[in-house]
């Protein structure tokens, strides 16, 4: 294999389970099992002295050592205040996620007997700048070259589009995982995959369905034993209930009833949960996914998409029969399909990484031959495709299929804080959510006062689709300060440009027009691990035994 061509692995870094895949010589994605021979690894990390244990064993230990086990860390990605303390050291979500990545990569390395360096890691579509940056850093901490952070529904659609690419269609991807919900409209074409619109909730997933079962079990325990105690205060009982709730939920995907035994302080209750009862106590969660779906469809309509052809269900939680039934009821003309719910995301990420590198190689060779800088989607002469196939070990057909364009949208809006006519602060959005990326927008603002020495620019992220909003509706993701020449009058023009790349990274440039002073910043978020702390985390990760 040509040494310029690096194999790229796809990683689904999930809230509850993670997986890793690569592309075989025919261009087909293959999941690599872990050392325990499981295709998916629980995203659970157990701090065991000097060892870090990730996966099934960690999950089993959650009950015995609740204070040493971290679960659902993805929900805290990009959160500045999350710190897990172990043996007087603090660990950030990026570092803990880095352990999960190392486990996947180490096991895959063992299994395949080859080095793994380059990866594409997925994240929920509505992850903002902070969460994306945290995901990228988790990869860096694990010693990986992160080629791209890719949206999970896009990955699922790529996996689907590659299997069923015979004709053009508009697909809705309803992705309900362990901790997150995404709903995305995607236009699948023979030579391109375009994301039209995306929405979701990062705090809604299978875990919430489990929590409803737990609540129900507590009530039933109290009713049967007469106890008024809040048994969830007992960590062991809580851990036990979490495991049995998830198990009962999965049973209810197959059967009408699930028996559950709850024991606490020597008392015991036997509870039978029926599917009807389960559906009843979780109905509002299901309805929330449907209302987010309707919101997204309304957004898509504004872009001229009034209908769709297929409805894909991905994510482990779409196995709950209530989901399919409700979708069928809401959209009677489209038969929803469950599509490879556990593996589509990792496979799509691998396909994407592979397409990126094959495509780069094709473009590089065409550019070399024509002497012109070629970009993106170009006609590939047969002999160049053949030479890439020969040098990379992929079949010619696979190489040709890699030449596909993938276009994404931003799931967030970005703006700056400005004063309105009444001198009240407001956020002015330059880039609106669901705009196709890359995107570049420039808008002219004015200085507030005469003879002002600097302009402070506050860069804001939000989920509002309007041009103007209250500052409370947005979060600050960066600031910049532009020095001004002296004696400028009030309302002197300042041009602010935002450039958002394919992966959701934002660059801001502000130009003072009169004297042509300029400042550019690339948003480095303060809520992720950085500097010395990052270097320490990387060093720790390389030295730790992760199994
Ligand atoms: P994911 O993040 O896509 O791997 O989804 C994991 C979620 O799917 C977890 O909340 C699991 O409990 C849930 N899940 C997996 N299998 C089933 C099943 N058979 N029935 C219901 N939920 C499931």
From TrEMBL:
Keywords for this protein: ATP-binding, Chaperone, Nucleotide-binding
Species annotation: Candidatus Thiomargarita nelsonii
Annotated coiled-coil segments of the chain: none
Family matches, as Gene3D superfamilies: 3.30.420.40, Actin, Chain A, domain 4, Substrate Binding Domain Of DNAk, Chain A, domain 1
GO molecular function: ATP binding; ATP-dependent protein folding chaperone
InterPro entries associated with the record: ATPase_NBD, Heat_shock_70_CS, HSP70_peptide-bd_sf, Hsp_70_fam
Name of this protein: Chaperone protein DnaK
Homology family: Belongs to the heat shock protein 70 family.
């Amino acid at each position: 294999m040509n040494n310029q061509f690096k194999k790229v692995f796809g990683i689904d870094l999930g809230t509850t389970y993670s997986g890793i895949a690569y592309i075989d010589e025919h261009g087909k994605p293959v999941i690599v099992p872990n050392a325990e021979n499981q295709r998916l690894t629980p995203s659970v990390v157990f701090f065991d002295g000097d060892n870090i244990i990730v996966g099934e064993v960690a999950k089993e230990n959650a009950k015995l050592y609740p204070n040493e086990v971290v679960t659902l860390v993805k929900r805290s990605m990009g959160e500045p205040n999350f710190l897990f303390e172990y043996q007087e050291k603090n660990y950030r979500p990026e570092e803990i996620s880095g352990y999960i990545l190392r486990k996947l990569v180490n096991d895959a390395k063992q299994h395949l007997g080859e080095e793994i360096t380059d990866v594409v890691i997925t994240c929920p579509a509505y992850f903002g700048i902070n969460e994306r940056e945290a995901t990228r850093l988790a990869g860096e901490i694990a010693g990986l070259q992160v080629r791209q952070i890719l949206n999970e529904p896009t990955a699922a659609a790529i996996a689907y589009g590659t299997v069923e690419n015979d004709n053009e269609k508009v697909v809705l991807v309803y992705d309900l995982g362990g901790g997150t919900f995404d709903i995305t409209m995607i236009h699948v074409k023979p030579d391109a995959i375009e994301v039209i619109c995306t929405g979701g909730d990062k705090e809604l997933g299978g875990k919430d369905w489990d929590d409803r079962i737990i609540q129900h079990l507590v009530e039933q325990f109290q009713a049967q034993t007469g106890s008024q105690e809040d048994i969830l205060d007992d960590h062991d009982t809580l851990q036990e209930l979490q495991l049995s709730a998830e198990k009962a939920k999965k049973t209810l995907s197959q059967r009408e009833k699930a028996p559950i035994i709850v024991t606490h302080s020597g008392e015991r209750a036997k509870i039978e949960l029926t599917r009807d009862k389960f559906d009843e106590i979780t109905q509002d969660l299901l309805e929330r996914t449907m209302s987010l779906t309707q919101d997204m469809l309304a957004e898509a309509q504004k872009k001229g998409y009034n209908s769709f052809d297929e409805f894909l269900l991905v994510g482990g939680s779409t196995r709950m029969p209530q989901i399919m039934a409700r979708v069928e009821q809401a959209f009677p003309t489209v038969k929803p399909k469950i599509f490879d719910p556990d593996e589509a995301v990792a496979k799509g990420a691998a396909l994407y990484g592979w397409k990126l590198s094959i495509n780069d190689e094709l473009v590089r060779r065409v550019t070399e031959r024509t002497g012109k800088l070629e970009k993106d989607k170009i006609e590939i002469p047969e002999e160049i495709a053949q030479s890439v196939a020969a040098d990379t070990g992929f079949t010619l057909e696979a190489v040709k299929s890699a030449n596909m364009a993938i276009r994404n949208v931003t799931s967030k809006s970005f703006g700056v804080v400005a004063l309105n006519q009444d001198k009240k602060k407001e956020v002015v959005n330059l880039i609106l959510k669901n705009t196709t990326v890359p995107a570049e927008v420039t808008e002219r603002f004015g200085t507030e006062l005469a003879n002002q020495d600097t302009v402070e620019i506050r860069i804001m992220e939000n989920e509002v689709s309007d041009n103007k909003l209250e500052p409370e509706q947005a979060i600050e993701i960066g600031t910049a300060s532009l020095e001004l020449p002296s004696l400028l009058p009030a309302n002197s023009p300042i041009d602010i440009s935002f450039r958002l790349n394919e992966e959701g990274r934002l660059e801001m440039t502000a130009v003072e027009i009169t004297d042509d002073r300029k400042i550019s910043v690339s948003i480095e978020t303060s809520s992720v691990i950085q500097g010395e702390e990052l270097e320490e985390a990387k060093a720790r990760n390389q030295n730790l035994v992760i199994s």
